[in-house]
Amino acid sequence: MRFLRSTLMIFMVMILATVSQSPQAQSNNRRMSPNELVADLYKQHDRKHSPFFQTRSRASLYKYFEKSLADMIWKDAVTSKGEVGVIDGDPLYDAQDMEIKKFAIGKAVYADGQARVNVSFENFGQRKSIIFLLRNGRSGWRISDIDYGQGRTLVGEFKASRR
After folding, report:
1. Cβ–Cβ < 8 Å for 40, 32
2. Is 131 within 8 Å of 118 (Cβ atoms)?
3. What is the pLDDT of residue 1?
């Protein structure tokens, strides 16, 4: 009986070790760099899996955004009930209509535990630049705000709507 129990324990440990070394387990546990996080957000967004307007799960928001910003985005999606909310266009392109060309994600610039990632593109022939502000926390890099230029930020839009 003791031998059977020991053999079973060894077998279970071997299975757990094998599963934890699988490529999928490693990629799920690996922390993304600021550039990878922003690129992954755009990739999900372009595949119609954007976390911005869905109301099924906050998990996709927490994957990309700091909790405070994720909660603002969630509240906007839930309270607007499919209508226009604080986010009245596509927040990744700062536009309602898009014809995106020359899309590029710049290299992150780091300072004081924070990062800035510049995304540039042309929309209907007009050059546009958006800066993602990220902080490095316990769960890795997360977006704390999106700067659209001319003093406009995503967090600022939410704060202005509360007035």
Report:
1. yes
2. yes
3. 54
Tell me the CATH number of domain 32-161, given options 3.10.450.50, 2.60.40.1080, 3.40.50.1580, 3.90.79.10: 3.10.450.50
Give the whole-angstrom CA distance, residue 65 versus residue 44: 14
Break the chain into its structural domains and give their ranges. Answer: 1-30, 32-161
Q: Enter the tokens of residue 62.
A: 């927490």
Which contacts (CB < 8 Å, 24+ apart) does range 37-40 have?
Answer: 37/64, 37/134, 37/140, 37/141, 37/142, 37/143, 38/105, 38/117, 38/119, 38/132, 38/134, 38/143, 39/105, 40/64
Q: How far apart are CA 33 and CA 109, in angstroms?
A: 11
Question: Which ranges of 21-145 would DSSP assign to H, the alpha helix?
Answer: 23-29, 34-46, 59-64, 67-80
Q: What would you report as the CA-atom Rg of the chain, rounded to the nearest whole angstrom?
A: 20
Task: List CB contacts of 67: < 8 A, sequence separation 6 or more.
Answer: none
Per-residue confidence at 82, pLDDT binned at 50, 70, 90? low
